[in-house]
């Protein structure tokens, strides 16, 4: 047993931090909030040159064959930098299910192009209900000759406006068991009948409404087995939760570190505010939460890497914990900074808003606690 | 990173589980006879039967080589790796097996003697700590020196081959039954010397003339700790540990031993299982309490926190193994664990509704009042090894590097 990062993982982390400090300063993050596309194609190319996009792909598909834990380490740094790039949608939400369930042809078609930065993909899953269960999937795909015809509206689809392909979760059968009859389709985002509208968000992340109006997709574009898409989705959700947690942990750690620095420097009543116990104890609590987040995320990422059956439980524990950690770190981060923490110019609000967004993405803390309760047979 | 067991670790685990499976039926039987344990770990029973039971179980563990397993072989231990220690803690908790006698000797006094004691001290004391023949206590705190331990006033003055000790210690857990104490006493009286360089660390025979322990009753009603009065107690010079006036630093080392481990978080997982059983037994509005969404949320949160605590502890261990400083995870883990323990116990009481008022011996008491005891005991847990406030100060100042407040 050994519960810390190994040497290569530490190297990956350091290299990622250095790269992002140079290539992804807050100035760029803020520019991308204003930008219509919301990401920089130049930076995307550089990221792919760092081998980050194909990090977890086998070498034969243009990847470097690393494990999910390595990816988690990398995402922690991306979250710290607030990297404005569709890395989780492309890699975790779509490339991974293609790797897991795709045909040889599909893998060859998508993975090398994702790895070298030519293709952006995203997952079109949630609908108006905002839920994460099979029963929340109501967009239909009906067979018609060699095609399926997709109809309905997907919501909160990240980065659909820049995606080349959408992995669309559809209902192909409507029986009492909703897990049966869910099918996944890889749909060219420029197909006739698709209308994409970017929703205005608090973080300025690009979440989209995607309307499918009689969109024809060839039956060979189904990912995995027809009607049997739900097990694939379940795995996607677990990976997404843990990836999101790694991202959140990076942000929470940033908020903590910058608050510690400030508490050492800011003078009030003739002494650094960091010498006041009210401030020290806030930061000590933050340290408990952030160290805890790191520990549970590494464990959860390890279960995914090992295909360990505990992965669903670990992901729920992590998501529930990290959701609160990130929020508390940024809320107290603002408080410790006083007036300056409340300004637009200070970066803390970027993290605070992201914390609120991450909190509800892929299930909030209450949702995951209930899942844990079920898995414990309470 | 690898959370799975190596073949040797797996072999160790299996051997231990086989032993536990063989021995737990008798353990259960004896435990039932004296009332179920339930609740928080170490909710110390002090009755003669309870003591007799602990001695019996200690001997079982000792004969099988499961006491002080991380101690080096030359001192009678197993020389177990830190990971084997983790496995041991985890399996003991899963099997709901209690510890033996003398946690303080094995966890604190013994390791301090190993690290800083003379060869003679090691030979004299270590074997009997393991066998449980000699029980230890810790005499550090005083009426005017708890969190501010460096304000201790107990004096030890040289006289021939001895030190003569006078003063009063307090909150001495197990003091009434202990054979030996680790003692912190002042040996430098020049007020210009910084406080931390005025103490020495002693091994004190609790049966010496001049030692009086008066039991103090805790809120549980039991008297697990006491006041220790030291009136011209003679301690031979060869029972000082380390150098004269270096005792403060040795005592801080003693405190480190308990901080960086994951065992209390692991024990909480056992308490949580007991709590889940409780929610299946209790009804509210004609339904098992386990169906209540708010209760489910709370218990799930405990389970998550206990696991987070566990993995924080395990990361700290890995750092230690790599020869790095334990890092922020260690004090952070201990703070999390002690506060979590209190929240679990508090909910266990709350869920019992009006029954939570009934204690051991009462006709309708749930689990024979085990929770009531462990709940009360849990209130001491954020005080006893450094209060939560002091732990937060330590995290802020030592691990996060924030400045101290000075007038
Ligand atoms: C069950 C139990 C068993 C014990 N067993 C032993 C034992 O075997 N041997 C032994 O030597 N001692 C033992 N103790 C004593 C224990 O170590 C002390 O009680 C503890 O260190 C606190 O000291 P105090 O009681 O003097 O409280 P104080 O130090 O007076 O603290 C009172 C309050 O003030 C707060 N406070 C103090 N200083 C600060 C500060 N700088 N910043 C913020 N808040 C502060 C504390 O957190 C606490 O809330 C035991 C205590 C208990 C409860």
What does this protein look like?
The complex is a heterodimer of chains A (378) and B (407). In chain A, strands 1-4-5-8 form a 4-stranded mixed β-sheet, covered by helices on one side. In chain A, strands 2-3-7-6 form a 4-stranded antiparallel β-sheet, with no helix packed on it. In chain A, strands 9-10 form a two-stranded antiparallel sheet. In chain A, helix 4 crosses helix 7, helix 7 (230-265) packs parallel to helix 9 and helix 8 runs antiparallel to helix 9 (311-337). Chain A has helices spanning 7-23, 26-34, 41-49, 68-81, 87-101, 104-115, 230-265, 277-305, 311-337, 348-360, 365-375; strands at 121-124, 140-144, 147-158, 165-171, 182-188, 194-199, 207-218, 222-223, 267-268, 271-272. Chain A is 51% helix and 16% strand. Chain A is globular and about 80 Å long. Chain A is an alpha+beta fold and 378 residues long. In chain A, a hairpin with a 2-residue loop joins strand 2 (140-144) and strand 3. Chain B folds into 3 domains: 7-100, Acyl-CoA dehydrogenase/oxidase, N-terminal domain (Butyryl-Coa Dehydrogenase, subunit A, domain 1, Orthogonal Bundle), CATH 1.10.540; 136-244, Butyryl-CoA Dehydrogenase, subunit A, domain 2 (Beta Barrel); 261-399, Butyryl-CoA Dehydrogenase, subunit A, domain 3 (Up-down Bundle), CATH 1.20.140.10. By secondary structure, chain B is of the alpha+beta class. In chain B, the strands form 3 sheets. In chain B, strands 1-4-5-8 form a 4-stranded mixed β-sheet. Chains A and B meet through helix 7, strand 10, helix 8, helix 9 and helix 11 of A and helix 8, helix 9 and helix 11 of B. Bound molecules: flavin-adenine dinucleotide. Residues 137-141, 146-147, 171-173, 225, 380, 383-384, 386-387, 389-390, 393 of chain B line the site of flavin-adenine dinucleotide.
């Amino acid at each position: 047993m050994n519960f810390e990062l190994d040497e290569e993982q530490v190297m990956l982390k350091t290299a990622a931090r250095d790269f992002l400090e140079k290539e992804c300063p807050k100035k760029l993050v803020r520019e991308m909030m204003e930008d219509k596309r919301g990401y920089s194609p130049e930076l995307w190319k550089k990221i792919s040159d760092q081998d980050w996009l194909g990090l977890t792909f086998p070498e034969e598909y243009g990847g470097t064959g690393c494990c999910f834990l390595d990816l988690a380490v990398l995402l922690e740094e991306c979250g710290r930098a607030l990297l404005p790039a569709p890395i989780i949608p492309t890699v975790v939400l779509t490339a991974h299910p293609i790797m897991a369930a795709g045909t040889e042809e599909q893998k060859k078609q998508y993975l090398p192009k994702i790895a070298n930065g030519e293709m952006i993909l995203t997952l079109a899953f949630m609908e108006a209900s905002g839920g994460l269960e099979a029963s929340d999937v109501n967009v239909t795909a009906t067979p018609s000759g060699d095609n399926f015809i997709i109809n309905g509206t997907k919501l909160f689809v990240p980065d659909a406006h820049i995606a080349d392909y959408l992995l669309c979760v559809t209902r192909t059968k409507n029986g009492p068991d909703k897990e049966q009859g869910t099918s996944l389709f890889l749909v060219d985002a420029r197909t006739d009948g698709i209308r994409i509208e970017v929703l205005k968000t608090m973080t300025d992340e690009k979440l989209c409404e995607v309307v499918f109006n009689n969109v024809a997709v060839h039956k060979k574009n189904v990912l995995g087995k027809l009607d049997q898409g739900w097990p694939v989705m379940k795995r996607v959700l677990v990976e997404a939760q843990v990836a999101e947690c790694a991202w959140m942990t990076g942000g929470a750690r940033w908020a903590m570190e910058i608050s510690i620095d400030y508490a050492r420097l800011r003078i009030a009543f003739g002494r650094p505010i960091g010498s006041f116990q009210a401030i020290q104890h806030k930061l000590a609590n933050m340290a408990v939460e952030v160290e805890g987040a790191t520990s549970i995320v590494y464990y959860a990422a390890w279960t995914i890497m090992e295909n360990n059956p505990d992965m669903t439980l670990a992901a729920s524990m992590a998501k529930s914990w990290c959701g609160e950690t990130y929020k508390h770190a940024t809320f107290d981060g603002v408080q410790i900074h006083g007036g300056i923490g409340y300004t637009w110019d200070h970066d803390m609000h970027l993290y605070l808003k992201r914390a609120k967004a991450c909190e509800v993405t892929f299930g909030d803390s209450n949702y995951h606690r209930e899942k844990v309760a079920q898995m414990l047979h309470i | 990173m690898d959370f799975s067991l190596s073949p040797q670790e797996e072999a160790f685990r299996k051997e231990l589980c086989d032993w536990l499976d063989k021995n737990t039926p008798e353990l259960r039987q004896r435990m039932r006879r004296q009332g179920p344990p339930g609740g928080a770990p170490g909710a110390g029973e002090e009755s003669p039967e309870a003591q007799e039971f602990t001695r019996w179980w200690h001997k079982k563990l000792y004969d099988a080589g499961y006491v002080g397993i991380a101690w080096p072989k030359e001192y009678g231990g197993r020389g177990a790796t830190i990971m084997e220690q983790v496995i041991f803690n985890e399996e003991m908790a899963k099997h709901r097996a209690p510890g033996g006698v003398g946690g303080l000797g094995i966890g604190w006094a013994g390791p301090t003697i190993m690290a800083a004691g003379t060869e003679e001290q090691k030979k004299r004391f270590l074997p009997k700590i393991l066998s449980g023949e000699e029980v230890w206590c810790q005499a550090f705190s005083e009426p005017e020196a708890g969190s501010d331990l460096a304000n201790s006033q107990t004096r030890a003055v040289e006289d021939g081959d001895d030190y003569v000790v006078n003063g009063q210690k307090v909150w001495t857990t197990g003091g009434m039954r202990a054979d030996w104490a680790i003692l912190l006493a002042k040996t430098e009286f020049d007020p210009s010397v910084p406080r931390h360089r005025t103490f020495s660390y002693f091994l004190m025979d609790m049966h010496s003339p001049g030692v009086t322990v008066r039991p103090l009753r805790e809120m549980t009603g039991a008297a697990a700790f006491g006041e220790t009065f030291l009136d011209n107690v003679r301690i031979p010079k060869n029972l000082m540990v380390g150098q004269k006036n270096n005792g403060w630093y040795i005592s801080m080392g003693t405190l480190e031993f308990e901080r960086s481990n994951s065992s209390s978080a692991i024990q909480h997982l056992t308490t949580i299982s007991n709590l889940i059983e409780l929610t299946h037994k209790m009804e509210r509005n004609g339904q098992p309490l386990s169906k209540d969404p708010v209760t489910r949320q709370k218990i799930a949160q405990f389970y998550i926190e206990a696991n987070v605590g566990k993995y924080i502890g395990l990361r700290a261990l890995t750092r230690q193994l790599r020869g790095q400083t334990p890092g922020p995870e260690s004090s952070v883990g201990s703070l999390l664990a002690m506060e979590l323990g209190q929240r679990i116990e508090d909910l266990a009481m709350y869920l019992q509704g009006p029954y939570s008022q009934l204690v051991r011996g009462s006709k309708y008491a749930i689990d024979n009042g085990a929770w009531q005891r462990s709940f009360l005991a849990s209130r001491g847990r954020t005080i006893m090894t450094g209060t939560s406030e002091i732990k937060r100060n330590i995290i802020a100042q030592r691990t996060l590097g924030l400045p101290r407040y000075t007038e």
